[in-house]
Amino acid sequence: MIWIGDTLVSPGEPGVYGERVLAGHRVWDPYRSKLAALYHLGKGVEITGSTRVLYLGAAHGTTVSHVADYAEVVYAVEIAPRPMQDLLEVAGRRGNIIPIMDDARHPEGYAAAVEEVDLVFQDVASPEQAEIALRNRVFLATGGHLILVVKTRAIDTTARPEEVEAGVGDAIRPSYSILGSTWLLPYHRDHVAFVCKK
Amino acid sequence: MRSFWFGDVDGHGCTKAEGDLEALASRLSGIRTNPDEIVPPRWEQAVECGAVRDRKEYLNKLRKICIRVARDRVAAGFRGKDTELIQMVMLLEGMDQAINQIGERAADWYRILHPVETWKYRTPDSRRLLAGIGKDADGPLKEALDGILALRGVRTRLAREIAVRSAEVLPNCSALVGGLVAARLVALAGGLPRLARLPASSIQVLGAKGALFSHLTRGTPPPKHGIIFQHKRVHNAPGDARGRVARALAGRLAIAARIDEYRGAPDPGFLEESDRMIESAGGRR
Prior knowledge:
The complex is a heterodimer. Chain A is of the alpha/beta class. Chain A is built from six helices and eleven strands. Chain A has one domain: Rossmann fold (3-Layer(aba) Sandwich). In chain A, the strands form two sheets. A seven-stranded mixed beta sheet of chain A has the order 7-6-5-8-9-11-10, with helices on both faces. A four-stranded antiparallel beta sheet of chain A has the order 1-2-4-3. In chain A, strand 3 and strand 4 form a beta hairpin. The longest helix of chain A has 13 residues, at 81-93. By secondary structure, chain B is mostly helical. Chain B folds into three domains: 2-79; 81-169, no CATH class; 171-285, Serum Albumin, Chain A, Domain 1, CATH 1.10.246. Helices cover 69% and strands 4% of the residues of chain B. Chain B contains 14 helices and three strands. Chain B has a three-stranded antiparallel beta sheet, with helices on one face. In chain B, strand 1 (2-4) and strand 2 (7-10) form a beta hairpin. The mean pLDDT of chain B is 86. At the A-B interface, helix 3 and strand 7 of A face helix 3 and helix 11 of B.
């Protein structure tokens, strides 16, 4: 990861979404990106030029573009048509983003295209966030990492976020070894990130 | 045999997938792997297969095919007959907000220029009021007021157009609650396919998000109705029957949405029966 002072940046062609540019590098804003927030909190997983990434919940391709600046290849899964339009624009200009318009809850739809990866990053707002992480485990190489960002409000609005966190932890513990969980405060409210290893 | 984007692999070897970009894209789009038997492809397999020369070509080719698949799916997603209706409803809501906001601002400005003007003990029709102000205002204020009046005209025509389209796309829902409310329900649900899969209890409170969540988190009384309150049968019903009418109407709407989604034609028998049921719940026509 490249830091300029206290600022996280990524190398790459700027101007994707009007991000600031610092010394020729694109500023990666922790208030906009949950992954950037995790790096700012010191709990992220290093991405290098040989890292293969499966990105679930790619949305408009904002964070994806930064990940692609570091990684060898990013398989970006997104189901909704409107964000996919933006993601396609980003993928068209970057040779290492492979956009996949499919449902992360059903990996059988994209199993014929996605190879084994070193990092699964999951940021989807769905009540089934833990199940999605389990179902996509097949794509992760042994020793690879899963970063699971849980939007606790999407699972249960009435429960306390800490209870939701515990529930997700219990659900994925049999399949992944959990290295830690981090609340993304002060950057994002009610979001917790699990960093796990297969 | 396992099917991958570049070909089919079995115990004996690999059969390369043939065809141009379009053919490869539609082939990939159609592959569904058994969820319990997912084995990710390896790029070396594709080389053995003769589909690509090296990893660079593997990624390039796969990327092109996936972009093509995604483009086709985006286009298909926008082809649904309800997508345009949803955008029309969104535009209508945006216009309502703009008209109210700009109208109020302009009226406040006018009142500074005319301090004696008061609207107490008068119930002026807002359209006539704005037109009245417009007569003795000038400059940007007048232009703003003219703009609002023009926007109001567009709004009326848009609402009419929504009702017409809605009657085509959602014949049964529109017959039950009117085109505009039916279209709003579809917009809130996020599309007709989604509305058709919602339980009646959800349809009943669509559009009452604030009340519903304060009920769930803070235990306030549950909302009786969401957007369907806008239909006259609900808001004209006497207070003690309103919840019952909303429940009956939502129940029939859930069925109507399914008929609209899966059959797409009006069902007079169903509509008649619905009328009777809603009436017996206390909702007069």
